[in-house]
Amino acid sequence: MSSSGSPSPRVLGLDVGSKTIGMAVSDPLGITAQGLTTMRRQNKRLDFGRLEKVIRDYNVTEIVVGYPLRMSGAEGTQSEKMKLFAQELHKRFKLRVHLCDERLTSAQANRVLRDSEMSIKRRGEVVDRLAAVLILQSWMDMRGSGR
After folding, report:
1. Distance (Å, whole) CA 43 – CA 50
2. Quick one: pLDDT at residue 2?
3. Which of 3, 13, 15, 52 is the one with CA 20 to 30 A from 36?
4. Cβ atoms within 10 Å, residue 92
5. What is the DSSP string of 49-112?
6. What per-residue confidence (pLDDT) applies to 8?
7. What is the CA radius of gyration of the chain?
C-alpha cells in the first residue's frame, strides 16, 4: 500500500489460557512487541469476536500462538489444545498462524514481575500480557535472525 494508505501490517501474539488470553502486537516496523489488554475468556463466539476486532484494529496479517511443550520438548494435552486453537484461528480469519515454543515465557514473565516492585494482585493482571509479549518477541527475533 502507499505510505498514506492503510496502517502497516502487524503480527498478533497470543498467550492462550483457560481463563484469559494475553495479547501483544508488533510495532509497525515489526521489531518490538507491545502488550495489549488481556482478554477474559467467555465463550468461543465472544472470544473470536473480540479477537476479530483486534485483528481489524491493528491490521494483523499473521498470528503467533504460544505453544506449551513439556520441558523435555514433548507435546502434552495443552499442546494439542493449542494446535486445535491455531487451526481454528487460521480457518476463521484466513491468516497465517504460527506456533511458538513458550516453555520459558511464563516463568520468565513471572520472574520479571517478581523482580519488579509490583503488587501480587497487579502482577496477576499483567503476567498474561507479558507472556504474550515474550512469545511474540522471541518469534520475531528468531524470524529476524533467519532461524
Report:
1. 11
2. 37
3. 3
4. 14
5. HHHHHHHHHTTEEEEEEEE---TTS---HHHHHHHHHHHHHHHHH--EEEEEE-TTHHHHHHHH
6. 86
7. 15
As given in the structure block, the three cell numbers for residue 130 are 507479558
Q: How many CA atoms lie within 13 A of 56 on its CB side?
A: 6
Position 1 confidence tier, pLDDT thresholds 50, 70, 90: very low
User: How many Å apart are CA 25 and CA 55, to the nearest integer?
Assistant: 10
DSSP summary character for residue 147: -
CA distances from 66 to 38, 98, 119 (A): 14, 9, 26
pTM: 0.85
Cα first-last separation, the chain: 28
Q: Which domains does the chain have, with CATH numbers?
A: 10-144 (3.30.420.140)
User: How far is residue 2 CA from its own chain's centroid?
Assistant: 28
Question: In the structure, what pLDDT confidence band is assigned to residue 3 with cuts at 50, 70 and 90?
Answer: very low
* Cell reading at 35: 502488550
